[in-house]
Amino acid sequence: MRVLIVEDERVLADTIAEGLREEAMAVDVVYDGDDALERASYTEYDVVVLDRDLPTVHGDDVCRELAERRGPARILMLTAAGDVEDRVDGLSLGADDYLPKPFVFGELVARVRALARRSGAPVPPVLERRGIRLDPHRRRVARDGRELRLTNKEFAVLEELLRAEGGVVSAERLLERAWDENIDPFSNIVRVTMATLRRKLGEPPVIETVTGSGYRLEAR
């Protein structure tokens, strides 16, 4: 999934981003409201983690504008004020969820994942196909009962292929969903990651290359 962190406390923003990347999410970071609106105008995010008290453009105004755009991104608002009135205000602006600071990181991850499930077509909490069983919440994947150890990027790529339910996923789409803005779009990283993922999944092969289009998990 693709997540945007909007937080002016740079250490906190970078810490959240690093933690979510360890959960196999693609994460971009901005530190003010103006950059948040610009970034969300050309990148499709599943979830925006939005601090309420932002410079340049206040978090309330960012939330309101993102909600008015009616894009797919769900908004998790963060704030140091945690009373009921503040939560009601934040939700009335268009936020989908609200988390007061300080928070437990595990709860943040759970809320981001829950919101991401609501950002598109409904998907089951555990993804299964061709004997592959992937649990995003527990970060576990197995094939025919054999536990696999995947890197974060391999896990993210496999999750995207499973979510496509046999549909073709382009290399460009995988770059967008599994890597962040810092990746070179002309890199061969998708091909390299796909090769190691295929090796770890073992025989018989299940990932098909569709020439000129991308990759898909074979139906049988």
From TrEMBL:
Record domain Response regulatory: where: 2-116
Coiled-coil intervals, chain numbering: none
InterPro entries the record matches: CheY-like_superfamily, OmpR/PhoB-type_DNA-bd, Sig_transdc_resp-reg_receiver, WalR-like, WH-like_DNA-bd_sf
SUPFAM superfamilies: CheY-like (SSF52172)
Superkingdom of this protein's organism: Bacteria
Entry annotated with the keyword Chloroplast: no
Pfam families: Response_reg (PF00072), Trans_reg_C (PF00486)
DNA-binding region (UniProt annotation): 124-219
Segments forming domain OmpR/PhoB-type: 124-219
Protein keywords: DNA-binding, Phosphoprotein
Modification 4-aspartylphosphate occurs at: 51
Keyword DNA-binding recorded: yes
Name the record gives this protein: Response regulator transcription factor
